[in-house]
């Protein structure tokens, strides 16, 4: 198995002063400055048109469950024994994973849960497990390369993805892994990794889930997707978009690509980054707190109402510009640590998995949004929860949306907007 960073690359061949673009328009980029970009506000939103709600596999969680989970995370996120919150698939139960004796504060908050809730015991502490997973990913184990690892939700082991195993027996690999984190069981699968970088297709509004294209000085290169609208806390009038850091380097420009029949608009520049969270910010004059919903070529949109830290068992809807909206991915591991296939160190986030033969994300979706749908009183609310980053090639599946010979997979490794906010000083806009 390989790991995929989900951007869509464009190959450039250079020979002396001559450059040939093998895809898209040949020759240097011709862009229109951002001040000339159409910036009409989204003025109409019809709640009855919710293709992402129709795409859910499980019942939507209630707003009260999301708020309860946020409260628990706010109170105990830094406690070494707190392993996380998990929602049952039928949304009738909440489990809080904890190592050792629950504190009085935890017992008190469990009694206030909006549905049946219980504290379940973890064999190892969350701190022990997170340190062991980080150690595995960063360890020099010779021919064995641990590309990703994280604790199981129940806290009884470390789950890992291992590359470079060749013809080695599983027992030999297991022995090496076990020796590196003595005392904690390790389960593994073999594979490698790749980044996932490749209306949504021509968005001048500045919304999440739109296709954007990197301007590398003179030439238009790879494609990625936008995640969520943000603003600069130091200068609130400055707006932008959050997306994936691996899509391009700090200081480079990004465009809305018009092809041969429409103008190519310059959005702005990448001005902030959070490498360990694979997050970055590009400026955009007038971005707005909406995401595209529906297929890859859809023009339907929905507002982002808030953000949340997803519990284990939460269903995530992804909205990359190549795949379109795809729900049915459930959080199966958090925290989850993986190697940046581009050599940028380790990245921390969480893992989701989707059943069936249709992929959750694919190349071109890097930087795109992942969000939670919750309901209250018949109204649907959307919580920003993830930025698409990478995925293991072993989960390869049929691409949803555009299929241009790109990699798509059912497992996604994604990062958290809240952590990117802290690292960059830019915060999400909400409706």
Describe what is shown at a glance.
This protein is mainly β. It has six helices and 31 strands.
Using only CA atoms, what is the Rg?
21 Å
Structural class: mainly beta
Largest sheet, strands/sense/barrel: 13 strands, mixed
What portion of residues belong to β-strands?
Answer: 35-45%
- Roughly how much helix do the residues carry, as a percent range? 10-25%
Low-pLDDT regions: 9-27
Name the shape in a single word.
globular
Distance between the termini: 40 Å
Mean pLDDT: 87
Number of beta-strand segments: 31
Number of helices: 6
List the helices and strands and how they pair.
Blueprint: E1 3-7, E2 12-15, E3 18-21, E4 31-32, H1 51-54, E5 61-62, H2 63-76, E6 82-87, E7 93-98, H3 104-110, E8 116-121, H4 126-138, E9 145-151, E10 158-163, H5 170-180, E11 186-190, E12 193-197, E13 211-216, E14 219-225, E15 228-232, E16 235-243, E17 253-256, E18 264-274, E19 279-283, E20 290-292, E21 301-303, E22 306-307, E23 315-320, E24 324-339, E25 346-354, E26 361-362, E27 369-376, E28 379-392, E29 408-409, E30 411-415, H6 417-424, E31 426-428
Parallel strand pairs: 1-12, 4-18, 5-27, 7-8, 10-11, 22-28
Antiparallel strand pairs: 1-28, 2-3, 6-7, 9-10, 9-24, 12-28, 13-14, 13-17, 15-16, 15-31, 16-19, 17-18, 18-19, 20-21, 23-24, 23-27, 24-25, 25-30, 26-29, 27-28, 28-30
